[in-house]
Design brief:
By secondary structure, this protein is mainly alpha-helical.
């Protein structure tokens, strides 16, 4: 009798963990279509280098954790985002573009400050 209970318990645990894993994957894949950061970058017609995509990915994960108090779902070690997360992806892109714009503005101000009114450099 004990053997039957042990076998049943083992079978139940195995099936339950497989069911939970399948359910978690199904929730990620059926709730909303998946989207990559690179795809969203192309949709927004932004010029995204590999280093920028990695930077956006790190910041996106931080923003996701901040909002949902858990890490984003992963598949094979890669964070999985869906179209339901587009607002977060866009927010990271907007913040990055704002920082780049501010840097360019400061560079331009410094360049203008080095030019005298007659157009001669100091």
């Amino acid at each position: 009798m004990k053997t039957v209970i042990v076998i049943f318990a083992t079978l139940l645990m195995t099936c339950t963990s497989a069911f939970v894993a399948e359910k978690s994957y199904a929730e990620v894949s059926t709730v909303a279509p998946r989207i990559t950061i690179s795809e969203r970058c192309q949709q927004l017609q932004l010029n995204c280098t590999q280093s920028k995509l990695l930077d956006v990915g790190r910041k996106l994960e931080q923003l996701y954790v901040s909002r949902y108090h858990e890490k984003p779902p992963q598949q094979r070690g890669v964070n999985v985002y869906t179209t339901a997360n587009i607002d977060l992806i866009d927010q990271v892109f907007i913040n990055q573009l704002a920082k780049e714009n501010e840097k360019l503005r400061k560079d331009l101000e410094l360049k203008d400050a080095n030019i005298q009114p007659q157009g001669k450099r100091i």
